[in-house]
Amino acid sequence: MNYERKVEAMDSLAGSTPSFYDEGESRRKRTRLIVALVLIGFALAATWYAFTHRGTGAATAEGADGAAAQSVPNVTVVIPGRVSVQAAIAANGTIAARREMPVGVAGEGGQVIRVLVEPGQWVGAGQTLAVIDRSVQTQQAASLSASIRVAQADASLAQAELERAEALVSRGFISKADLDRKRATRDAANARVRVAQAQYQEAVARNGRLNIVAPAAGLVLTREVEPGQVVGAGSGVLFRMAKGGEMEMLAQLAEADLQRVRVGTRATITPVGTDLQIAGQVWQVSPIVDMNTRQGTARIAIPYSSALRPGGFADARLVSGTAEAPLLPESAVQSSPDGNFVLIVGKDDKIERRAVKVGTVTDGGVSIASGLLGTEKVVVLAGAFLNPGEKVKPVIQKSAQ
User: Fold this and answer.
1) Is the dihedral of CA 123, 129, 134, 137 positive or negative?
2) How confident is the prediction for the chain on average, in pLDDT?
3) CB proximity list for 367: less than 8 A, separation 6 or greater
4) CB count, 10 Å around CB of 346?
5) How far is residue 230's CA from residue 169's CA, in Å, rounded to a whole number?
6) How does DSSP assign 68-81, residue by residue?
7) Cα gap 345→366, rounded to integer Å
């Protein structure tokens, strides 16, 4: 019994051995398959990762380039060239009468009875400005007039006596010596008549000078006399007049500008506080320059205008010819404590600062006297927001001509 069981057990063990080996082989195959699949997965993942990050890097580079391109600002520039502009000189100064006439007491003076004019009034040559009391002088003139008649009566009597003596001398009733004395008496009487007449004319002339009169036609500027005032030779100037109403501007010019001004140079005068533009002409250029201010005076003749007040201030623009120069918009020219300057787009499209000297300012823009050739790319706007060395993209607009 035991023997049979042992045989059966051995048979059973012998029958199960092949199955065990088959299962081990299957597990090894499955393991290799899994490892292969994992490796394939890693390879696919690596490939995907490589392609994905390569595309992202390119996109990032392109985005950076695009952002950099977008960060460069567009700047409007102009190439001014050179145009013909009027060479003008700006100046300022005071208004004055071109020929001022101070009027005072010409005679012996006296008490003023009436003043007949006011400042701003036009008067003619010889017109009475003020009347001075002449009551005493009138009586003196009347006395001299009477003395003329007395002298004439004496002269008439002397002439009659001479005629009678001449009639008697032929009869021997009177000597020639007496006749000569009669003739001398007659001549002396006639001389006294002439003296009396001269004295009277002197008195009349002196009385005529008592009144204060205009020496020439013109405009009364000031009045320094009132009725009741006693005036005389030491009273000074009582009236000031502008001969013919002619005015002038005493324009103060720098020494260099004075060299460019000639007699006949045209000018436009603008009195302070007005928008008037009065045409004038330089009629005299100062032959000297003030050593302290380094300035000279150009006298500009201007016609009368009610806006012109002697002693007032005015601006002048003198046109001294034409010149070729760059012309820029006013927005392109900036100022600093060091002077005027402009920004230009130079090499590699980078901002550069250029110092300039401003010339004539016209309705068309600002002419540049020096500092530009006219071929530069000048920044028109936004100059205050740009710095030298900054890179920009210039956009050229039409010239400021």
Assistant:
1) negative
2) 81
3) 85, 323, 325, 326, 327, 328, 358, 359, 360, 361
4) 15
5) 62
6) HHHHS-EEEEE---
7) 19
Long-range residue pairs from 136-139, CB within 8 A, at least 24 positions apart, any chain: 137/203, 137/206, 137/207, 137/210, 138/207
Q: What are phi and psi of 223, to 5 degrees?
A: -135, 125
Q: How many CA atoms lie within 13 A of 255 on its CB side?
A: 7
Strands 334-336 and 339-345: antiparallel
Hey, which residues does 143 pair with through a beta bridge?
Answer: none
Mean pLDDT, residues 252-279 taken together: 88
Note the pLDDT tens digit of each residue in 96-121.
999 999 999 887 888 899 999 999 89
Q: How far is CA 201 from the centre of its chain?
A: 57
Q: Could you give the 3-state DSSP secondary structure of residue 265?
A: coil
271 Cβ partners below 8 Å, 6+ apart? 95, 278, 307, 308, 309, 312, 313, 314
- Per-residue pLDDT of 53-80, as tens digits, reads 554 444 444 544 455 455 788 888 888 8
pTM of the model: 0.54
Q: Summarize the chain as % helix, strand, coil (round to 5).
A: 40, 35, 30
pLDDT greater at residue 178 or residue 226: 226
Report how far residue 125's alpha carbon sits from residue 364's, in angstroms, rounded to the nearest whole number.
Answer: 48
Read off the tokens for 304. Answer: 């009368």
Sequence-distant (≥ 6) Cβ neighbours of residue 261 within 8 angstroms: 89, 253, 282, 285, 298, 318, 320
**How much is the pLDDT for 112?**
92
CA distance 226 to 223: 8
Q: How far apart are CA 268 and CA 62, in angstroms?
A: 62
**Cα–Cα dist 391/172, whole Å:** 136
Q: How confident is the model at residue 398 (pLDDT cuts 50, 70, 90)?
A: low
Tokens of 123: 């008067």
- Per-residue pLDDT at 39 exceeds 60: yes
Measured in residues, the chain has a length of: 401
Report how far residue 72's alpha carbon sits from residue 393's, in angstroms, rounded to the nearest whole number. 6
Is residue 341 a contact partner of residue 334, using CB atoms and an 8 Å limit? yes
Angle (CA) 105 108 112, round 5°: 60
CA-only gyration radius of the chain, Å: 57
AA letter at 153: A
